[in-house]
What does this fold into?
Amino acid sequence: MKRKPPGYWFNWNNIERELREVIENEYKDENGNVIKPSGEFPKEVQLVKTGKNYLLHPIRKYFGGIPNVRKRMGFEPSYKPDGYWDDWSNVEKELREVIGNEYRDSEGVLIKAAGEFPIITKLERVGKGNLACAIYGKHDGMDAARKRMGYKSSQKPKGYWKNWENVERELLEVIENEYRNTDGSLIKAKGEFPTQKQLSMIGKLGIASAIFKYHGGAYAIRKRMGFEPYRKPDGYWDNWDNLRMELEEVANSEYRDENGHIIKRAGEFPTQEQLSKIGRCNIEGAMERHGGLSSVRGKMGFKELQKPHSYWNDWGNLENELKLVIKNQYVDKDGNIIKNAGEFPTTNQLARINRHDMINALHKHNGISAICKRMGFKLKCKPNGYWSDWNNVEKELREVIDNEYRDSEGVLIKAAGEFPTTNQLKKIEEYGLLDAILKHDGMNNVRQRMGYELIKYPRNYWDNFENVDREFREVIENEYRTPDGTLIKAAGEFPTYTQLKLIGKGALASGLLRHGGKNTVLQKMGYPINGQIKTPQAFTDFIETESDAKLILERFGGDDADVADIMAVVYEGRISREDAMLLMQDPSLRDYLGRFQRPWCIGDLFEAGERLLAYDKNNVIRDIVYRRALEYRSEQLGPKPTKEQRERFLQELDREIAGLVA
It folds into this structure.
């Protein structure tokens, strides 16, 4: 979407025109399912799904929200009058209407048959979520509603599934019957022992859950009931294609419990808890052989799961994840062993099994040596003279070069195929290799020996503006992507300092700062730079499109002066300190800016410092980070710290700040 001119969203005619276009059109998802029918006023979720979420902000901010806009455009309110759902007769009337009708999805698959009393999840699927909420929130739940309307209770008595006789009786009934889809296709043949998926498809997930929760799993039950035990052949789960095939089936299926509540939606990648609930613990264990849940999600094209903030700061989390890795054997696609079962992993092995998230976590807990000792493992030491042999150094370096490394948040540390820098080797804890490189005459000599170009710039290289001009033009004109194809910077786009670091051009960032900063250099090179930010609309657009501006608000919000000082340095030439202060205090922006004020910890502050200090001039940002850290740590020490505590605290703080600047 092209940037709108200033004041565009203040104009009601523009909002109405854009909304009319959405109303008149039908929108479908990639599978052909209708998201929003033609002629219907869109709900907020529909605007998001159709990519029109940019309309939500001006609708809420300038025109009173969706309900007011609906009314202004002549549409009936979408909500019921006050007290509507408190009246049981209204609930009963709406329920009887649902009971009397048949509902199918966009592909014609039956959701609910006519005459069938709906379970709560079916009400949600047929767009009757408000009715479901009313039943549970105001009228004692679905079972009470069933009884009140003359239907039998659907709930099993407490402890029902723990009783083997109940499970056996229900299973025998399923076994003795044939089940088909509404189109006549066979789900389960008569006499066949049902799989977990078949039980789910015929609405008998309560049995499946009981089998695994109380009675030893499907293997034990089959044997107990006289059926031939079914198990996977040896080595089955070591084959990635087998795991992928089974996971695709689970991911594409919907699973419900015995009350009809959704355990996992179709199209959703299963969590460990969901796999356990649907009785697929075998898949959960198999994923550990292929790098764990997060890694497998990524391999199958699903967005990798983000750990909760500070997840890796908790030693228990790291220990539990390490134990799983230690327990399992890992092999590559050709069947070669990467790591033996029972063996403590090296950082290289963690990288090769796609556990980049754990590499940075090791450093948070004093490094791999300390962790080995803490968990009772002996650290693998290289034999005497190992690093003196050039062949060993080259072999280990080639392995690092070939692999990709990421930190615990998934941010790229080093791309596959890239020769590592000293800083990258430190981040992935290859200190032995780093020392060995020094023994072999340093990084530049080793690069040259292995056929790579030298990276060290001549003394005062960046003082020459021609060098900055040439290298900056090359970056501007080219496109950069991560190894998985994710765009870092488009061709023709002016890079941010963060992008320069991501593409390995951090030295160029230093060169820009020597010549007055990025915007000054762009002006010298003849490029037009973005206009100054002076209006509330320009400021909100700026925050929404600049990730570093958003970071400044999130980490330094609450103190307008700090935010204004940092923005003036980071975005020199685009926003002045005075303009930033005026905009921060603009009453129309109060609610908008309030969204970015959130609790933070010392780790958040240093993370922001690491990203922003590359822009710093005259230590403005450094001093703010230092002062904020000082205030935070002082609170932790309490009102009367000892002299020794104060001195140790200041030493640690100086060390951490120095580390950020380095």
